[in-house]
Amino acid sequence: MNISLHDKRFEPYIKEVAIQNRVNAIAEQISDDYKGKRPLFISMLNGAFWFTADLLRNIVGEFEVSFVKFKSYHGTQSSGEVVQSLGLDIDVKDRDIVVLEDIIDTGGTLKVFLEVLSQHNPGSVKIASLLIKPGALKYPIKADYVGFEIPNDFIVGYGLDYDGLGRNLRDIYVIENSSGS
Ligand SMILES: O=P(O)(O)OC[C@H]1O[C@H](OP(=O)(O)OP(=O)(O)O)[C@H](O)[C@@H]1O
Ligand code: HPA
Question: How remote is the CA of residue 51 from the centroid of ligand 1, in Å?
Answer without folding.
Answer: 13
